[in-house]
Design brief:
By secondary structure, this protein is mainly beta. It has one helix and six strands.
């Protein structure tokens, strides 16, 4: 049997985007502790990687996006947030952030 090597990093391919999903607490901008079962109505995520087929799109690494539909979950090695692959057509908006932050407990 062939040995499988450890995964070091995941990159988006072709016309897909690797995102890191924000928690319900983060998307609702609240410092209240929410249940893990609380799902935001409109999922939001940060763009981590863009496939080579999307280099000319207006989506950039680091953008906060609003998306609809599902995603393909991927292992998350360097973050506590869930990561996944979405299609470019799932993105409904790019969210512009201000410089203020909330303290999440």
């Amino acid at each position: 049997m062939r040995k499988v090597k450890n995964i070091k990093k995941i990159h988006a391919a072709n016309s897909f985007i690797l995102v890191e999903l924000l928690t319900a607490q983060e998307t609702m901008n609240t410092c209240l502790k929410l249940s893990d079962k609380t799902k935001p109505e409109a999922p939001q995520a940060y763009v981590l990687s863009i496939g080579s087929g999307l280099k000319d799109s207006n989506i950039k690494v680091g953008d906060r996006v609003l998306f609809s539909g599902g995603f393909v979950p991927t292992p998350s090695y360097d973050s506590e947030r869930q990561q996944g692959i979405i299609d470019i057509y799932s993105i409904r908006a790019i969210i512009e952030e201000d410089n203020s932050t909330i303290k999440l407990s």
